[in-house]
Amino acid sequence: MNDGTVRDTPATAPLLQVEDLHVSVDGTPILRGVNLTVQSGQVHAVMGPNGSGKSTLAKVLLGNPAYVVTSGTVRLRGEDVTAWPTDVRGKAGMFLAFQEPEAIGGVPVIQFLRQALSARRGTDMSVLEVRLMMMEWMEKLGMDPEFGERYLNEGFSGGEKKRNEILQMAMLEPEVAILDETDSGLDVDALRTVARGVHTVREIRPDLGVVVITHYQRMLDELAADKVHLLIDGVIVADGGPELYKKLETEGYDAWRT
Prior knowledge:
By secondary structure, this protein is an alpha/beta fold. It is built from 8 helices and 12 strands. It has helices at residues 54-61, 86-92, 109-121, 127-141, 158-172, 188-204, 217-223, 242-251, and strands at 16-25, 28-38, 43-47, 68-76, 79-80, 94-97, 104-108, 151-152, 176-180, 209-213, 227-232, 235-240.
């Protein structure tokens, strides 16, 4: 099994490349040949109606075993990671912000971050190291320092859960971050707070690649996506820039349905 170390690849290799990806769940095809190429520093948005396969794509990118890749590949900086388990992908620099982050009672945020960071860096980090790093990022993200002592997502509001995901993304320093409907269930103010957090991380780590899974145009207004992809019935049927999601805003998805 691969140890999660990304080997040297040609400088021209994309950060993330999805090639002709077909995926099934319980024998039912969900993705039917998805192609997606993300370069370092880019923000890509994947949009589509409910049931189009958006969240399936997010889960498959991080290796959720419930989803079976029947053909196609996922590559990170040119290396085929299709068969890698989730933890190995995480160590290699892939990150998923969940649509519905799970609450873990009895596990403080700082303890969770210490375990995740130690795994990502391959060394046992001390509580003090993690605390200092966490406090620095919380200040940058405008978060209450006491947040780190609370149990992970237990009793968190929707906005707090999503900001906690952004904190994890900041501290784990991934190569590519997949944001699975991070805007879901947020009001306008909370959405802007989360978007500002993403901006803050990208200002400090400009090479970070981001894939935003969403069906809300307002999230793309906040993040200014470089490229937009329209996923319908498991296939990307259109690619474009901001003009594509603005067209979707006025015309809806029906024009692209077969």
